[in-house]
């Protein structure tokens, strides 16, 4: 069901819109959590490390899919808010065409450079073959990843956050069951983990695209709707490209950090792989709520209702900080038990590594969540240069300090300590840029 985000009490409207998005991303993360869980429990520590190694490269592809999602979503939401339905449909069709071309190029590059990238990350010989196999299957499923992300972006732009939630709940549950079936019962090893994700994502993609096209056809427009527009492509790219660069550079930075983590041995790499999945569950959840705030801001920008943007920001902060409390308590007090979902009790060094990582980072979720809310407003109001400045500050600090601190401490503890510093400085910048953008809109 499409929803107008430009009317109603902002807090109620935003919470009703964002909470299903939060639920959706939790299920989305179950894809990768399930892969790691099954790999660690039913194949072994090396398989868990292989999935973790591969994950850093899959994040590059996710960065492009996420950028296409954001670009299409923001532009579509602005046009939906302005009730320019013909242009909105053209923007959707343009995004589908452009994303398909981009996806084919990434598949070709990915299949050609998978092995060199894994070697660049100093992947241990014991897990190199499994990492390469997992990534190859993943890359063949990129069209499903791209078009599913475009579909969820369109749903969100039109104020519907519930439909993606239902799709993800079903497909993620199926993915867990298929992971176990392919690995435990059919003994397919790491390939079974990858094929389970491929199939479940494919079904979700096809169903969501069919529903999107049906929704669009139900919106009445006059005359012929153009299927491609260079102007709207440029407008979409103005939002998508910075988002892609942001996520891509974060992925490259994570690969550099993964290389440093790998230098401390497979057990440390396995513990980091498990813990970073739990951390990414939280960060991606907050990022998704930030995307919801982007759609809220974009619709109200299109409708010229600027005061609602500031009201939505306050509601967004209240929401993410309430969610921070249980996550922080769970990871600080019960992190060991969550890590045992991926690791055996005999993996003492891996467990200690993951527990230390979670205890250092989780108290700072209150800081980084505020940054992601402010970033959502900057994206939704097309203030992409400010958004990029804050994001790159975070990335550069985290990567540089990970190397500096780990050299000083001669341990992986220095790597984990870099996260809070980068988050804190970047949050200050995002808050400053947000205030400047609000003053600009009010002028």
Low-confidence stretches: none
Helix/strand-derived category reads mainly alpha
Beta strand %: under 5%
Individual helix count: 14
Tell me about the biggest sheet?
none
Backbone shape: globular
Mean of residue pLDDT values? 84
Integer-rounded radius of gyration: 21 Å
The total strand number stands at 0
Through-space gap between termini? 35 Å
Helix content: over 70%
The quaternary structure here is single chain
The succession of helices and strands, N to C, reads HHHHHHHHHHHHHH
Summarize the structure.
The chain is mainly alpha-helical and 443 residues long. It is 86% helix and 0% strand.
Keyphrases for this structure?
mainly alpha, 443 residues, single chain
Written account of the structure:
The longest helix is centred in the first third of the chain and has 37 residues, at 45-81. It is built from 14 helices and no strands. The chain has helices at 10-43, 45-81, 85-120, 125-140, 142-157, 162-185, 190-218, 230-262, 266-302, 307-339, 348-361, 365-380, 384-409, 413-442. Helices cover 86% and strands 0% of the residues. It has 443 residues and is mainly α. The mean pLDDT is 84.
């Amino acid at each position: 069901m499409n929803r107008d985000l430009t009317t109603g009490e902002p807090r109620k409207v935003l919470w009703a819109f964002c909470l299903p998005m939060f639920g959706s991303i939790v299920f989305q993360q179950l894809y990768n959590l399930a892969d790691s869980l099954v790999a660690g429990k039913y194949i072994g520590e090396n398989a868990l490390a292989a999935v973790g190694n591969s994950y850093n490269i899959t994040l590059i592809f996710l960065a492009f899919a996420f950028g296409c999602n954001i670009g299409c979503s923001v532009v579509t939401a602005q046009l939906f808010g302005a009730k320019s339905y013909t242009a909105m449909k053209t923007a959707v069709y343009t995004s589908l065409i452009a994303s398909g071309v981009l996806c084919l190029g990434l598949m070709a590059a990915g299949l050609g450079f998978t092995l060199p990238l894994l070697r660049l990350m100093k992947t241990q010989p014991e897990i190199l073959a499994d990492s390469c196999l997992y990534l190859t299957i993943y890359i063949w499923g990129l069209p499903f990843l791209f078009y599913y992300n475009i579909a969820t972006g369109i749903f969100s732009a039109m104020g519907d956050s519930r439909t993606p939630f239902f799709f993800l709940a079903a497909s993620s549950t199926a993915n867990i069951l298929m992971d176990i079936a392919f690995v435990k019962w059919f003994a397919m090893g790491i390939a079974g983990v990858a094929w389970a994700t491929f199939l479940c994502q494919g079904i979700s993609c096809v169903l969501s695209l069919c529903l999107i096209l049906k929704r669009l056809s139900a919106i009445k427009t006059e005359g012929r709707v153009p299927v491609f527009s260079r102007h709207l492509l440029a407008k979409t790219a103005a939002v998508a490209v910075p988002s892609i660069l942001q996520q891509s550079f974060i992925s490259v930075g994570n690969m550099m950090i993964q290389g440093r983590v790998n230098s401390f041995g497979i057990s440390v790499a396995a513990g980091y792989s498990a813990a970073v999945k739990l951390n990414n569950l939280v960060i991606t959840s907050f990022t998704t709520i930030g995307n919801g705030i982007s759609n809220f801001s974009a619709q109200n920008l299109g409708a010229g209702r600027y005061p609602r943007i500031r009201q939505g920001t306050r509601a967004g902060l209240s929401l993410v900080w309430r969610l921070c409390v249980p996550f922080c308590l769970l990871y600080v007090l019960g992190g060991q038990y969550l890590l045992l979902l991926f690791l055996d009790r005999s993996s003492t060094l891996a467990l200690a590594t993951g527990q230390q990582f979670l205890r250092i980072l989780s108290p700072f979720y209150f800081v980084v969540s505020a940054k992601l809310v402010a970033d959502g407003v900057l994206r939704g109001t097309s203030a992409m240069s400010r958004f990029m400045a804050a994001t790159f500050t975070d990335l550069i600090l985290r990567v540089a300090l990970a190397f500096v601190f780990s050299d000083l401490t001669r341990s992986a503890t220095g790597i984990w300590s870099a996260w809070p510093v980068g988050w804190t400085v970047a949050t200050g910048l995002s808050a400053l840029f947000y205030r400047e953008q609000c003053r600009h809109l009010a002028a």
